[in-house]
Amino acid sequence: MADRGRGSLRGARGAGGGLRGGRHGGPQGPQPTLDKPRREAILDLAKYANSRIRVKFTGGREVTGILKGYDQLLNLVLDEVTEEVHDPEPRIRALGLAVLRGPTITLLSPVDGLEEIANPFLAQE
């Protein structure tokens, strides 16, 4: 009874201890190699640092601001943020510095070079 929980072979079924090492690797199992090349990010936000971008969220909210920082989860830090509110009548609300959560972002685009075009999917009259 003094061996309980210490990884002895006797009665160690499912305990993963002892000399067997268990099914799930353990100290002798496969180790990650450091030789793998690092995967390139799909979206490189570094080129938009300190420039004005427009962000749209799930639910329809839309903000513009200057990109100050980001992480691998697409969480963004924007400065001088303004929100375009379209409730009863369109107006702009100043928010200042804001942290935007990546999972809620649906569209991200630079403001410079942005122009509105006609909808090509509307039926021609």
What features would you describe in this structure?
- It is a single chain.
- The protein is 0% helix and 33% strand.
- A 5-stranded antiparallel sheet has the order 4-3-2-1-5, with no helix packed on it.
- It is mostly beta strands.
- The protein has no helices and 5 strands.
- It is extended, with a radius of gyration of 27 Å.
- It has strands at residues 52-57, 62-70, 76-85, 91-100, 105-110.
Rounded mean pLDDT is 79
Physical arrangement of strands within the biggest beta sheet: 4-3-2-1-5
Shape verdict:
extended
> What percent of residues adopt helix (DSSP H or I)?
under 10%
The secondary-structure class comes to: mainly beta
Strand tally, please? 5
Strand percent estimate: 25-35%
The CA-CA distance between the termini, in Å, is 88 Å
Largest sheet properties = 5 strands, antiparallel
Describe this structure in a few short sentences.
By secondary structure, this protein is mainly beta. It is built from no helices and five strands.
What's the layout of helices and strands?
Blueprint: E1 52-57, E2 62-70, E3 76-85, E4 91-100, E5 105-110
Antiparallel strand pairs: 1-2, 1-5, 2-3, 3-4
Note the main attributes of this structure:
about 120 residues; mainly beta; 5 strands; extended
